TrEMBL record, chain A:
CDD domains: F1-ATPase_gamma. GO terms for molecular function: ATP binding; hydrolase activity; proton-transporting ATP synthase activity, rotational mechanism. It is a peripheral membrane protein. It comes from Ancylomarina euxinus. Its main location: membrane. This is ATP synthase gamma chain. The keyword Cell membrane applies. It comes from the Bacteria.
UniProtKB/TrEMBL annotation, chain B:
Produces ATP from ADP in the presence of a proton gradient across the membrane. This is ATP synthase F1 subunit epsilon. Its EC number is 3.6.3.14. GO terms for cellular component: endomembrane system; proton-transporting ATP synthase complex. Belongs to the ATPase epsilon chain family. The keyword Ion transport applies. The lineage of its organism: Bacteria, Pseudomonadati, Bacteroidota, Bacteroidia, Marinilabiliales. PANTHER family: ATP SYNTHASE DELTA/EPSILON CHAIN, ATP SYNTHASE EPSILON CHAIN, CHLOROPLASTIC. Transmembrane segments: none annotated. InterPro entries: ATP_synth_F1_dsu/esu, ATP_synth_F1_dsu/esu_N, ATPsynth_dsu/esu_N. It comes from Ancylomarina euxinus.
Length: 291, 78
């Protein structure tokens, strides 16, 4: 059995670790709250935009002339992998990596073999691992320093430009969708070409006046909705990151508590044994004297 | 007439208004009560609002879209 002093130092070191993980959990909880608020904020904007677009495309005859919507043969693929800059958040980042690998193996194996499977990494953690296996064209780790609509839009528009120029035929986003603090859903969704959902039942319910014209409005709204989609994915990922970190730090704190309890038990047993030994020595010493 | 101005990052304004002046892409225009349904893109400029209690409020926008339908006006600003 380890001696008393050893156990004591171990207990104090685990206690310090516990303090750190508990503090990190608190920080993540606060940041999660903020990130969640941001998601709630963008929702009315995104919903309204979708609604207007739905109204428009419903009253417009087939909008196949739209440059972002045309389905092309997916020869050149770009994945946008959204991870985080910081670690210590459980399987958050490795899940994204896993999904990227899966996609490259199962869905885009042909493109991968031809060298037309590229990844745009957002977040240091993902970049580190993905760049070992895949071709990363560019990374945007700095985005998290100052994440706002403008910065994410500029990335989204550069992707859109490259898509229009024919550099890629298909762009997909891979990220953790936020469900609640404990649950993140790993998602890959098609970014380009646009997936049109014709589920809107109440199309053309009102006769709108269009200023300056339907085509012009659609031409302006579609990039906007793409940027919003991209920004939404980023916000989801950030909220998921904090949620994941909060959960994993909570677990770490619990583990530390268990460990401390176990070690305290050992410590007290060792202390008791030492006292018993001492008493035994004194008693036998006294007995020897009196004889 | 109900007006909402939303940006991707937050809701800028929400409330009852009498008059909205908007920088439309093909010229500035106003929306009053019972305006016909309209969707228009906006240019960089200033949105001027007269609220129901007579106050004037100004917002600067870089562009956006406005939708007006059944006395509900939504401005998606950038």
């Amino acid at each position: 059995m380890a001696n008393l002093k050893e156990i004591r130092t171990r207990i104090s070191s685990v206690e310090k670790t516990k303090q750190v993980t508990a503090a990190m959990k608190m920080v993540s909880a606060a940041k999660l709250k903020k990130a969640q608020d941001a998601i709630v904020q963008i929702r009315p904007y995104a919903d309204k935009l979708q609604e207007i677009l739905g109204n428009l495309s419903g009253s417009l005859s087939d909008s196949e002339d739209n440059i972002y919507g045309a389905e092309r043969k997916a020869d050149k693929v770009l994945l946008v992998a959204i991870t985080s800059n910081k670690g210590l958040c459980g399987a958050f980042n490795s899940n994204v990596l896993k999904r990227v690998n899966e996609l490259s193996r199962d869905v885009y194996s042909k493109q991968k073999a031809e060298g037309n499977f590229k990844v745009l990494a957002i977040g240091k953690q993902g970049f580190k691992d993905i760049s070992k296996v895949h071709q990363v064209i560019v990374h945007h780790n700095e985005l998290f320093d100052d994440m706002n609509f403008e910065n994410t839009s500029s990335i989204a528009s550069s992707i859109m430009e490259e898509y229009v120029a024919g550099k890629y035929d298909r762009v997909e986003l891979v990220y953790n969708r936020f469900k609640n603090a404990g649950v993140q859903i790993l998602t890959n969704e098609q970014f380009l070409p646009i997936v049109t959902n014709d589920s809107d039942a109440d199309t053309a319910q009102s006769d709108y006046i269009f200023e300056p014209g339907k085509e012009a409005i659609i031409g302006e709204l579609i990039p906007k909705s793409l940027k919003t989609q991209f920004f939404g994915a980023m916000l989801d990922s950030v909220a998921s990151e904090h949620g994941a970190r909060m959960t994993s730090m909570h677990k770490a704190t619990d583990n530390a508590s268990d460990l401390i309890q176990e070690m305290k038990l050992h410590y007290n047993q060792a202390r008791q044994a030492a006292i018993t030994n001492e008493i035994l020595e004194i008693v036998s010493g006294a007995n020897a004297l009196s004889q | 007439m109900l007006l909402e101005i939303v940006t991707p990052e937050k809701k800028m304004f929400s409330g009852e208004v009498d008059l909205i002046q908007l920088p439309g892409i093909s010229g500035s225009f106003e929306i009053l009560k019972n305006h016909a349904p309209i969707i228009s893109t906006l240019d960089r400029g200033v949105i001027k609002i007269k609220t129901s209690d007579g106050q004037e409020v100004l917002f600067e926008v870089d562009g956006g879209v406005v939708e007006c339908k059944k006395n509900i006006v939504t401005v998606l600003a950038d």
